[in-house]
Amino acid sequence: CAKQRTVYMEGNYKSRQQNNDCAQSAMNLLSVQWSCLGQGVSKYRTGDGEYALFIITKGSGSITVDGKEYEVSQGKALAVFPETEVKTAGAEQSLFYCIRLCSCGSQVQECAEEAGFSREFSMRDIHVNCMTKLKKTVKCMLESDTAGYVEQLEQNCRMTKVWIDLIEDHKTFRGQMECAVTNARGRAAEIQEIAVYMKAHMEENLKIEQIAREYGMNRSGLTRQFRSIMGCPPQQYLLQVRIERAKELLRNTEETIGEIAARVGYRDALAFSHIFKEKCKVGPREYRKGYAEK
Predict the structure, then answer these.
(1) How far is CA 60 from CA 10, 28, 88, 93, 176, in A?
(2) Which secondary-structure segment (H or E) carries 46?
(3) Rounded to 5 degrees, what are φ and ψ at 84?
(4) Distance of CA 230 to the CA centre of its chain
(5) What is the distance between the alpha carbons of residues 206 and 199, in angstroms, rounded to a whole number?
(6) Which of 21, 58, 115, 179 is deepest in the core (most CB within 10 A)?
(7) Long-range contacts of the stretch 156-163 (C-beta < 8 A, 24+)
(8) Cα 230 to Cα 77, 165, 180, 195, 245, distances in angstroms
(9) Residue 93: pLDDT above 80?
(10) What is the pLDDT of residues 198-220, one digit of tens each?
(11) Global pTM?
């Protein structure tokens, strides 16, 4: 691991403050460690009121929290709540670099929750920009002089900045997800609207390309999204509704095959009969006769 020191800073810092000081302040940095675990195993237990934040900066491995194992890799972060057993282990043939930030204070739990962590969902991804900020802050922590009260205040401010960066990163991710969900819902409603239009205008000479253009899509885009939402491509859906409507007319009216064909979008009665037989295994005349005999 020593060969990687020019890229990944290794070291540790431990505050002079104790866990019992936590209730008296909003945010305390207790310790920070950035190490290369390699294929080894490390164990840790968070104290009363202490939260541990693990950030994977390179490689892959596993983190076990109270018996539950998480597979982790570069770009993952995992929060561990107070009085919890933690075991970190590197994967085979992988340099496993991990930051462990331990903090306490009246605001830490709220920060963790705002950053997307909970006891049930303790792991999440970190975006590249956020990871860059976190590594820069941790490097400053490790380079800091631990001698004085002012330096400790600066460290606490850096720990606060870590949480702020994680909260902003989570909000960005959540905003992107909400936008994606909103777009998906809007697109689903649009596809359903197209389906209703096709059913209402089945007697017309409908062209999928033209419908797609009217909704700002190309044919392949409409086909892909239509299949995703309706379960079949638009051309197949149109055929299904035409056949179902033709069956209804054959059962309930005395209209000729040619008239029914026209009402479901076929100008050629012969072509309609051929398609009907292909889908229903019997021609329209046999279908009507069979229904009448029941």
Answers:
(1) 17, 29, 11, 10, 27
(2) none
(3) -130, 140
(4) 22
(5) 10
(6) 115
(7) 156/25, 156/27, 156/28, 156/29, 158/29, 159/27, 159/28, 159/29, 159/101, 159/103, 160/27, 160/111, 161/137, 162/53, 162/101, 162/134, 162/137, 162/138, 163/27, 163/108, 163/111, 163/112, 163/114, 163/115
(8) 38, 41, 19, 8, 18
(9) no
(10) 999 999 999 999 999 888 889 99
(11) 0.59
Contact 56, 26 (CB under 8 A): no
Query: Which amino acid makes up residue 121?
Result: F
pLDDT of residue 177: 61
Average pLDDT in the 49-73 region? 91
From its phi and psi, is residue 67 left (phi > 0), alpha (psi between -120 and 50) or beta? Answer: left
Identity of the amino acid at 275 = I
- pLDDT at residue 23 in the model: 55
CA–CA separation, 105 and 20 (whole Å): 10
Out of 3-17, 64-78, 170-184, least confident range: 3-17
Residue with tokens 């009448």: 292
Q: Say how far apart CA 74 and CA 98 lie, in whole Å.
A: 9
Specify the amino acid at residue 38.
G
What pLDDT is attached to residue 56? 93
